[in-house]
Write a structure and sequence with these properties.
Blueprint lengths: L13 H10 L2 E2 L8 E3 L4 E3 L3 H11 L2 H4 L8 E3 L6 H7 L1 E9 L2 E6 L10 E2 L14
Antiparallel strand pairs: 1-2, 2-3, 4-5, 5-6, 6-7
């Protein structure tokens, strides 16, 4: 593999190796227990299935990383919870990147007085009650 020779202590599975290459994962042999650096997240991981593989699948959804994949534009017409929030959120959005493995959308501003609005997914790794869109 690109990162570590097969059958070595930190060898990656073929699927993990492909994801690691796609995301630009770097092998850092000086780091004893967590030798894989994820540059987009600036975090170190070990080679175990519960670490690097899980991180790559959950945080960097392979389908969203495909070079020909572009999330569709989004239109928000209303928000049920709050009148002011509904007015600020109403509008068209375009994908600007990823957040927690899902598209991050930014509202297309139509005039200078528009509030900059982002819509993004939050997974449950930090605070369970904030999980969702």
């Amino acid at each position: 593999g690109k990162h570590v020779k097969p059958d070595s202590k930190y060898a990656l599975s073929r699927a993990c190796e492909e994801l690691a290459i796609q995301m630009g994962i770097q092998f850092c042999p000086d780091s004893r227990s967590n030798p894989f650096l994820c540059p987009p997240c600036n975090r170190l991981f070990n080679a175990g299935a519960s670490s690097l593989v899980r991180h790559l699948v959950q945080m960097h959804n392979p389908a969203l990383q495909h070079k020909d994949f572009t999330p569709a534009p989004l239109h928000v017409s209303a928000c049920n919870n709050h009148k002011q929030a509904s007015e600020e959120m109403r509008g068209n959005y375009i994908a600007k990147g990823l957040h927690h493995g899902k598209p991050l959308y930014q509202k297309v501003c139509t005039d200078v007085s528009d509030v900059v609005v982002f819509l993004y997914f939050w997974d449950s790794r930090h605070v369970e009650q904030h999980h969702g869109w």
